[in-house]
Amino acid sequence: MIPGEVKVNMLKIYEEEYIVRMGQCDRYGKWRPSAILAAMQDAAGTHSEKLDCGRAKLLEKNLVWVLTRTEVRMQRYPSSGEKVLIRTFPAPNKRWFFPRYYLFIDEAGNEIGKAGTLWVLLDFETRKMAPPGEAAALLPDNSDLELPLGMPPAIPQVEGEDSITLRMPVYTDIDVNGHVNNTRYADWACDALGIDIMEKYEPASILVNYAQEIMPGQEMELHAAADGTHYRVSGKFGEKVHFELGGELRKRD
Fold it and tell me: What is the distance between the alpha carbons of residues 158 and 83, in angstroms, rounded to a whole number?
């Protein structure tokens, strides 16, 4: 058992022990940002199932959960083979938005990262936001819990000229909701920043604004910039910005 693990009310807080696999790591053997987002997505899904508001139940009402914002802050990235305790819980909803938070704890019981997300309900047919409805009533009262982060902040501006690349969604980018999965945006951003930047730096924070779904056939124009302190990547289709991703950089050890 990881020392940071505690007895919790599984309806209020969900915990799972996660082993970082080599296939989820970058060229330096560190947990890849997209793999962290995938682990967060899976933990949220499992907890939602336990709360009786998971995907299967929502689809009965033609609804699905989708992300609108994400903030991840990593003190360090664990290596392949490390065990990480993922602790997650929802906070009281803010109108149509459902906050969910995460802590990442290593085998020594140290917090190595934390994250906050904002989710909404999406009508699967109209692709429009749906009101909280019964889903909000199924969530536990976690108003007594300390939140590890505030609301996700604005993505920082970066000075300098953007590099521009084109990215067409491929089959493996698309998830069961029929759009590019939220985890893939991190891979797209790392690729857009390029090997030279990613060999020197790692993201100390990852902020994502999911403004508009990216559907099959929508070739995105990716604008990427980094100045050694911050980075920013945005994806446009025509004149419309579909996502923005950015945050702080730190030099690799």
Answer: 35
Separation CA 228–CA 219 (nearest Å): 28
Q: How would residue 201 be classed by pLDDT, with cut points 50, 70 and 90?
A: very high
Query: For 14-27, what is each residue's pLDDT tens digit?
Result: 999 999 999 999 99
State the Cα–Cα distance between residues 246 and 193, nearest whole angstrom.
11
Element (H, E) at 190: helix 184-193
Three-state SS at 239: coil
**How many Å apart are CA 137 and CA 125, to the nearest integer?**
23
Residue type for 67, please? L
The neighbouring-strand residues paired with 145 are none
Q: Are 116 and 71 in contact (CB under 8 A)?
A: yes
Q: For residue 82, give the H/E element and its range.
A: none
State the pTM of this model. 0.92
Determine the pLDDT at residue 133.
85
